[in-house]
Design brief:
- This protein is α/β, with parallel strands linked by helices.
- It has a single domain, classed as TIM Barrel.
- It has helices at residues 2-9, 27-39, 56-66, 99-114, 136-141, 151-163, 183-192, 206-215, 224-228, 232-241; strands at residues 15-20, 44-47, 71-73, 87-93, 119-129, 146-147, 168-172, 197-200, 219-222.
- The protein has an eight-stranded parallel barrel with strand order 1-2-3-4-5-7-8-9, surrounded by six helices.
- Helix 6 (151-163) runs parallel beside helix 7 (183-192), helix 7 runs parallel beside helix 8 and helix 8 runs parallel beside helix 10 (232-241).
- The longest helix is centred in the middle third of the chain and has 16 residues, at 99-114.
- It is globular.
- The chain binds SN-glycerol-1-phosphate.
- SN-glycerol-1-phosphate binds at residues 19, 172, 175-177, 200-203, 221-225.
Length: 245
């Protein structure tokens, strides 16, 4: 079970997730990235994107044929469900007030998910913004992120997510964000929430990955930086496995 692995790793090992947006890949670039993920012993491959509408099934099949790393859907919309994956982050955008992303889409997807073999992982998804340029997820979801400086609101939202029964809390600064989530915010959320904490968005360097892990992230998600430079995954996973952790 994917969630058990994440849950049991808390306090011991960090979980590294490669995020793949099939829209940004050719077959050969995807194969190269998956090969690097395999070499670097990445723990999970998340698949999803803001605009993805086709090519999901073949991309997941290609990934599955070339690695044993579990594939988890990170759906940007209801269209992004595939029976070929191993699991799905069942995201509730709890930083926002868009009812479709809090319950509406979940009702529409429930029957399909119950009839699938996907491991469903309920996830409280918290979008944190810098108050400058909108991220894709902010625009597409039609929600406002919680301002990065409002640590108390971010923490209260994470606590509410835990009390509502989510299994993961995901602090997201948006794909390609100029700044990842502030380590101080991660520390504060970690103090008040016992669920595994996922952190993603704007992680470009192994040093940044190291900082968010030291602050308390249990799971890190990296997409953009590895599309540009797949080799970087080795350095990023190496800092997670170093004794400094
Ligand atoms: C976005 O958290 C993920 O949803 C990853 O973001 O592409 O910036 O690594 P990046």
């Amino acid at each position: 079970m994917i969630y058990n692995k994440i849950y049991n790793a808390r306090g011991k090992n960090k979980i590294f997730c490669l995020l793949v947006d099939p829209e940004n890949h050719t077959k050969s670039s995807l194969l190269r990235l998956v090969g690097e993920a395999e070499q670097a012993h990445a723990d999970l491959i998340l698949v999803g994107g803001s605009l993805l509408s086709q090519g999901l099934d073949p991309s997941i099949q290609l990934i599955k044929e070339n690695t044993g790393i579990p594939v988890v859907l990170f759906p940007g919309s209801l269209m992004q469900v595939s029976p070929h994956a191993d699991g799905i982050l069942f995201l509730s955008l709890i930083s926002g007030r868009n009812p479709d992303l809090l319950i509406g889409n979940h009702v529409l997807a429930a029957s399909m998910l119950k009839n699938s073999n996907l491991e469903v992982i309920p996830t409280g998804y918290i979008l944190v913004g810098e108050g400058r340029e909108s991220s894709s997820v902010e625009y597409i979801s039609n929600t406002k992120p919680i301002p990065a400086g409002k640590t108390d609101l971010i923490t209260a939202t994470a606590m509410a997510g835990e009390l509502l029964g989510h299994h993961l809390i995901y602090l997201e600064s948006g794909s390609g964000a100029a700044q990842p989530i502030d380590p101080q915010t991660i520390r504060e959320v970690k103090k008040h929430v016992s669920l595994p904490l996922v952190v993603g968005g704007g992680l470009q360097s192994p040093e940044q990955v190291h900082r968010v892990c030291q602050a308390g992230a249990d799971v890190v998600v990296v997409g953009n930086a590895l599309e540009d430079d797949p080799l970087k995954i080795r350095e990023m996973t190496a800092v997670l496995r170093s004794p400094l952790q």
